[in-house]
Amino acid sequence: MTEPEVEKKPARVVVADDQTVVREGIVMLLGLLPGVEVIGAAGDGEEAVRLVGELAPDVVLMDLRMPRCDGVEATRRIREQYPGTQVVVLTTYADDESLFPALRAGARGYLTKDAGGEEIVRAVESVLSGEAGLSPSVQRRLLERLSQAEPQSAAVVPTPPVPPDGLTVRETEVLVLIAEGLSNQEIAHRLHVSNATVKTHINNLFAKTGLKDRAQAVRYAYAKGLVRPPG
């Protein structure tokens, strides 16, 4: 006598997109498909991080370009704070400046918004099984990038400095860029995040270190060995 098959639980998903029509459309589409249960929807990255903390979804479908906190920063925070939740990017953009920061931030899947419902479900299932959920066009772009990369076997990659005083890796990156003389806008462009996100990192690192202004931040970065004097 064969044992009855255990019914597979649907993946619990949060959808994050700042465009109401798009967000509601994705929620409606996924509601028609088996294997997925949408348990929440967020209008920006801040709300997405909050919902993950409250609802503990299996996967977040994450747009990239959103106000307050963009998708890359939200992905980084979710993966650092809630490692049990995977992130699949669902965006209009498949350029290198969107793709690679998202993957470095911890996204395990990357789809463009021309993906159909079944493709989205497959990506969700893939990341939950430990695989990458990438659209064919994104896979091609990754292969092209790898084929263009020059061999780096002889290069010595410097070890990044250990963050002092409880700073996160991202806060330390921001501090180093301040010491290099970059403005908030230039830092945002370099790290592919919003100006508001940069300001948040600066406020946090100032609070942790007791710094009052950028001049003190520059001296602090040199004193801690995070940057070296020219020459």
Automatic annotation (TrEMBL):
InterPro entries (UniProt xref): CheY-like_superfamily (IPR011006), NreC/VraR/RcsB-like_REC (IPR058245), Sig_transdc_resp-reg_receiver (IPR001789), Tscrpt_reg_LuxR_C (IPR000792), WalR-like (IPR039420)
Gene3D superfamilies: 3.40.50.2300
Organism superkingdom: Bacteria
Listed transmembrane segments: none
SMART domains named among the record's database cross-references: HTH_LUXR, REC
Residues modified as 4-aspartylphosphate: 63
Keywords: DNA-binding, Phosphoprotein, Transcription, Transcription regulation
Official protein name in the record: Response regulator transcription factor
